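Hi C.,

You asked whether I'd gotten around to modeling the 270-residue construct. I have! Everything is below, sequence then structure, no commentary in between.
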Amino acid sequence: MSEQVSLGAIQETLLIPLYGRAQDARRGKSVLSDRKAIELTETIDYDFSKFRGPSLGGSVLRASIFDEYVREFLREHPAGTVVDLGCGLSTRFDRLDNGLVHWIDLDVEDTMALRRKYFEDSERYTMITGSIFDTDWFSAVTERPGPVFLLSEAVLLYFPAERVRATLSRIAKQFPSTPLAFDTGGAFMMRSQDRNPVFKAVTARMEWICDDPKTLEQCGLRLRESRTFAQPQPSVVRTWPLQYRLAAKLLGRTAPVTTYKLNLFTTSPG
């Protein structure tokens, strides 16, 4: 039986990377091997076929780079806590579970209602209904001692710069000396949205322009590294099919690639 979808405009965009991961899983050489994504796209009552273009593959490459940021943290802190802020229908916990990590997935009410139809809480996995822009979720993270890793993938881009910066400042103050990963987009990327095939299928548009992630150090962050699709971690690029590696190399100097960045920060010490 198909599951009806009732999502807000921004929340609907979570279906784009879900479809991208499902398409990737169906390939002979898959980057993420996300079989759960296939299950979800076959069960959810939605016309996924309207999504097309390079952003589908891009969402897979983005996920693989963020996955490696989390793996690096878990190699040093195998029993640490990972918090995915605006998780959508991500399967990152399933992909990266090392048997010790404690994981929290956070998203707004309509998204979490849909997510709970396919995922369940467990001893080390917790779903929380809330917004990255609120502070209610802080206590759920801080009540457990130990190192924390925060990430937010393809979420902050959709909101005004003032709201994003204020939220990053609050997070930095609440979680000192904590790794935080999220993506940023420059002005070229924002201006070209209407030419992107996937955005012709949804009404939401990205708002936050950040040409230089280093400027976010004003929010109490320290930039550790900033990557593009042309600069993935060496361990990650080896998992990409040849067509993706060639595309990244050929397009690596073009504005669509250079202005979209996947960043790893550490919040300032308390």
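If it helps when you're writing up: The beta strands are 3-4, 44-45, 81-85, 102-107, 125-129, 148-152, 179-185, 221-227, 260-267.

Thanks,
B.
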